[in-house]
């Protein structure tokens, strides 16, 4: 069983975990567009590939899959998820499973406004959102919403261009300079991250790990602590099944005075996944089992409360790359 990790970047731990799980079973191969992506050097072998936007990119990846007899392929970056999903059949025809969600779900997860509409239609608690500032001002006048509000690009990531805004003047300035900004109700509560695995064969939710975020830095969870709550597990399971996600996903949730609000989904391994793995949620094993054709047993919340994660920097020294 061989696995290919695309856009490995700086996700060294994800590659290390796959290596541990695949030891004696198969190879872990990684790609990146840059030679200076440290995670590729953790793999059994690596390929430097063109950027995902280059013509013929998918053919390069398909060739690697054929040559290396890859059973499963996944990407660690958002813009590549839809591309993989769109080419799922091509991968299938050469015996490679795309570990991820459908094209439509990948697209919906990239677009926070589309996600918002889905959540409203399906009656999940979520922050009220507007793309049209005039409609938002009308809602303010009608007393439906009040400042502060949260502004972010509807197709953003890594917390780039986010701001807490207290008045109309600031909204006008931001809207004059940026396109595709969404105005969102400000959620004043505890931020939660969930790492979830949905069995690729049965479609069941088989593992959920939840943590309270303590400190965020550069769009990532820097410090967090694990916790368990049955109501939250039930909500996550219902949401994930109704939406139809598959494989590994990462969900942002807010707890506002005891009410859970779903904020966004990244249908891939999130930057905070090591916390789940080190607490006992080995999703690499769940992937391996699925690739072997085996369905995973449902084992939700099989970790301890109160496990802390604190990130720190590492360096890789490599001569002659
Ligand atoms: N409605 C909101 N109210 C308060 N804080 C928010 C809200 N939406 C997002 N945030 C904060 O901004 C961060 C980034 O927003 P998010 O929607 O997760 O986008 P992305 O992770 O794709 O950049 C979140 O982790 C959270 O800290
Ligand atoms: Mg987020």
What is the fold's blueprint, element by element?
Layout: E1 3-6, H1 12-22, E2 28-32, E3 45-48, H2 57-67, E4 72-75, H3 78-86, H4 88-93, E5 97-98, H5 103-110, H6 112-121, E6 129-130, H7 133-141, E7 149-153, E8 163-165, H8 168-177, E9 181-185, E10 190-198, E11 205-217, E12 220-227, H9 230-243, E13 247-256, E14 259-266, H10 273-278, H11 283-291, E15 308-310
Parallel strand pairs: 1-2, 1-4, 2-3, 4-5
Antiparallel strand pairs: 6-9, 7-8, 7-9, 10-11, 10-13, 11-12, 12-15, 13-14
Bound molecules: adenosine-5'-diphosphate and magnesium ion.
Adenosine-5'-diphosphate (ADP) binds at residues 127, 150, 152, 156-159, 162, 184-187, 191, 216, 219, 252, 263-264.
Bound molecules: adenosine-5'-diphosphate, magnesium ion
CATH architecture of the largest domain: 2-Layer Sandwich
Domains counted in the coordinates: how many?
3
Evaluate the radius of gyration.
20 Å
* CATH homologous superfamily placement of the largest domain: ATP-grasp fold, B domain
DSSP summary: helix tally: 11
* Biggest sheet overview: 6 strands, antiparallel
CATH topology call of the largest domain: D-amino Acid Aminotransferase, Chain A, domain 1
Secondary structure: number of strands: 15
Distance between the termini: 28 Å
Q: What is the spatial order of strands in the main beta sheet? A: 14-13-10-11-12-15
Unreliable runs, pLDDT <50, ≥5 residues? Answer: none
Task: Identify the CATH class of the largest domain.
Answer: Alpha Beta
Strand residues, percent: 25-35%
Quaternary state of the chains: single chain
Share of residues in helices: 25-40%
Shape: globular
Judged by helices, strands and strand pairing, the structural class is alpha/beta
| Mean of all residue-level pLDDT scores | 97
């Amino acid at each position: 069983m061989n696995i290919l990790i695309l856009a490995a970047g700086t996700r060294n731990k994800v590659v290390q975990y796959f290596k541990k799980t695949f030891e004696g079973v198969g190879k872990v191969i990684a790609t990146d567009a840059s030679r200076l992506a440290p995670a590729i050097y953790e793999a059994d072998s690596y390929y430097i590939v063109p950027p995902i936007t280059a013509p013929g990119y998918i053919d390069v990846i398909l060739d690697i899959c054929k040559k290396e007899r890859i059973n499963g392929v996944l990407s660690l970056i958002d813009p590549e998820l839809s591309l993989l999903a769109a080419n799922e059949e091509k991968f299938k025809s050469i015996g490679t499973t795309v570990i991820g969600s459908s094209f439509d779900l990948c697209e919906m997860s990239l677009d926070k406004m589309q996600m918002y509409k889905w959540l409203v239609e399906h009656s999940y608690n979520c922050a009220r959102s507007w793309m049209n500032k005039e409609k938002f001002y009308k809602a303010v006048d009608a007393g439906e919403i009040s400042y502060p509000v949260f502004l972010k690009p509807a197709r953003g990531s890594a917390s780039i261009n986010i701001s807490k805004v207290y008045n109309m003047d600031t909204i006008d300035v931001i809207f004059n300079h940026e396109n595709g900004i969404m105005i969102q109700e400000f959620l004043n509560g505890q931020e939660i991250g969930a790492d979830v695995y949905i069995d690729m064969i049965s479609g069941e939710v088989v593992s959920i790990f939840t943590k309270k975020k303590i400190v965020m830095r550069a769009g990532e969870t820097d410090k967090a602590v694990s916790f368990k709550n049955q109501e939250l597990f039930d909500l996550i399971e219902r949401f994930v099944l109704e939406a139809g996600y598959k494989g590994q996903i990462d969900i942002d949730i807010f707890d506002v005075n005891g009410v859970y609000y779903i904020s966004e989904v990244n249908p891939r391994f999130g930057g905070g996944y090591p916390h789940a793995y080190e607490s006992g949620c080995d999703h690499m094993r769940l992937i391996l089992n699925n690739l072997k054709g085996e369905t995973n047993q449902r084992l939700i919340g099989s970790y301890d409360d109160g496990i802390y994660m604190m990130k720190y920097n590492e360096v890789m020294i490599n001569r002659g790359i």
